[in-house]
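Entry for the shared binder. Reason: the reviewer on the internal report wants the predicted structure included alongside the sequence.
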Amino acid sequence: MTTSTDFVLTLTCPDKPGIVHEVSGFVVSSGGNIVESAQFWDRGTDTFAMRLHFAVPDAGLDAGALRDAFAATAEKFSMNFELHDLRRKSRVLIMVSKFDHCMLDLLYRYRIGELNIEIPAVVSNHPDVADLVAARKVPFFHFPVTKDTKREQEQQVRDLVARENIDFIVLARYMQILSEEFCNDFAGRVINIHHSFLPGFKGARPYHQAYERGVKLIGATAHYATADLDEGPIIEQAVSRVTHAHTPEQLAAVGRDVEMRVLARAVRFQAEHRVMLNGGKTIVFE
């Protein structure tokens, strides 16, 4: 039985006829077989986006050779592209403060192999979750931060990202605002989660504010972190219905559940190379 290696090719470029034909021809000429293909034309910006999952016999070209072979096609169509060997799992840094539900959910999904990721480290600005992380045999780093030490603390994070060859960062209820410089340097590589009351219910006790207003939907949004707080390109969202009978504590419980589900989906999409930036929004090939 012939074994094969799976790759994912993602690309964006100005739209023109012949792109799908050319890319498919590249796969065929490389001895590959298409497993999954998705494409989208944004008429507003005339941008074409494509995600192609294909398999190549193990005796065929490796990732480096495939990138070199595709370069001529990319130049012909002015493409920005990435090619990923799916045998390499995305390396993810989780950052958390004191609310641990999203972190624990990701660590569980990671342990059972639901997410195609490695988690080399968890960072927190508080020591509270250290024992929980250690129990799951993941290295934990306590990087405390104050207004006066933000630059130094972010440098510690940068050093860890470089040392562990991190692909992207997940803010699993990390209750600190990242600097504009950090957000710009890691654009498209930092995923944040927040409840979808924002900007309606800012500040402390948002679920109590929601209770007082009689909300009927509890939601969550996963998005890329930018210098504009909670306004980055959206990756995933979901809502759950609630009623007048829910207490503030029950609303918060519903909120935690939605946050975990939304963040896990966003992490999966990112790890499987399904998210593509398109200006201030995203294209997500689910």
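Summary line for the report: The chain has a mean pLDDT of 94.
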